[in-house]
Amino acid sequence: MEKKKSANYTQREKELLISLVEKYLNEKLAWEYNSIQTTGSRTGQQLKCCYEEMKKIAKQHKSEDKVDLLKTGGGTFIPKTTILDEKILMLLKDNYFTIANEYDSSKSATSKEPEQKKLMKLDFITSPSTSADINKENIYIVYQDEQSEEMDEDLTQIEDDEALNSNVA
Description:
Elements: H1 11-24, H2 30-36, H3 44-71, H4 83-91, H5 107-110, E1 118-125, E2 136-143, H6 150-168
Antiparallel strand pairs: 1-2
Helix pairs in contact: 1-4, 3-4
């Protein structure tokens, strides 16, 4: 079967295709698209190819934006991602995601989530002179940023609870 060259997709046609994909996500949509189109009839296969290409471009723009965000060196960042790209990425949110990495250098620049509070309780054994002289102390290691006052409140509450428990015993 010979492949026919059809007219390029207009921006309006691309937006229409994305809105139909949003509406039906996995259903056949060529019949509805063709009832609204302006440049000629499209087959389901042609629409699928166009959609796959738009997904690829949207992912590429998003990836380039992440790289360019760190390259600015204090300059202005101009995103390549368009509104249409954002719509596509929202449709793909279950399939297209980034893995969180707490050690990522770009986390503060791209993260919209507040950092999780971290508080660890460790049992620490001081250096005993004999095995009968083992003294266990609770040592708390607190990771916090300079702006977090809630961590100080949490740690104070834990210390107050321990003081209350030691007075009871």
